[in-house]
Amino acid sequence: MITVSRRILVSAPQGSVQRYLSDLQEIAKYEPKVDSIDVASTDAGQQASVTGRFLGLPWSGTFRFEMTRDGGYRGVMVNGPLRRIESRVLLRPVIGGTLVEHQQVYEVPFFMRPLKPFVTRWLDSTIENGLGYIKEGAEALNRRLQIQGLEA
After folding, report:
1. How many angstroms separate the CA atoms of 146 and 152, rounded?
2. CB 119 within 8 A of CB 108
3. Whether the predicted pLDDT of 113 surpasses 90
4. Rounded CA gap, 52 and 60, in Å?
5. Both ends of the chain: CA-CA distance in Å?
6. Quick one: CA dihedral 43, 107, 22, 31, positive or negative?
7. CA separation for the pair 24, 137 (Å, rounded)
8. pTM of the entire structure?
9. Three state DSSP letters for the chain
């Protein structure tokens, strides 16, 4: 089992960050392991077919997403190359904006366990890069919303 987690302060209110994250199509922009995502609504929430690259190798999978009370989301792989992949984005309002925490859990096959330190460092860097994109996207959305409010 590999678990990675990173946090970043976004200079935007929780509502703007929540609005940005609620568009699951944006995952392809801020998640380096995802090249494309096709989202569909179901009775149980949202489901997404994903393709991308993991350590340079092509992969595809299906995830079930549910929005959380704090404005983030939880995505769980229901079909794909590993036994378990789970991704959570948690939001917490703080002075100066919103603290965004991204957690990912991977259950890797036995033969990959010797590579765990390398894979963990790689996953850490992908989460850090992704949080940078979330910060930029949510702050840009917040600026657009503020301008629209001034123009109204």
Report:
1. 10
2. yes
3. no
4. 6
5. 51
6. negative
7. 13
8. 0.88
9. CEEEEEEEEECCCHHHHHHHHHCHHHHHHHCCCEEEEEEEEECCEEEEEEEEEECCEEEEEEEEEEECCCCCEEEEEEECCCCEEEEEEEEEEECCEEEEEEEEEEECCHHHHHHHHHHHHHHHHHHHHHHHHHHHHHHHHHHHHHHHHHHC
Q: What is the amino acid identity at position 60?
A: S
Q: Which residue has the tokens 């409010």?
A: 149
pLDDT tens digits, one per residue of 46-55: 899 999 998 8
Architecture of domain 2-151 in CATH?
Answer: 2-Layer Sandwich (3.30)
Domain ranges, ordered by start, for the chain: 2-151
The tokens of 74 are what? Answer: 């939880």
Residue pair 39/24 in contact by the 8 Å Cβ criterion: yes
Q: How far is the C-alpha of 152 from the C-alpha of 149, rounded, in Å?
A: 5
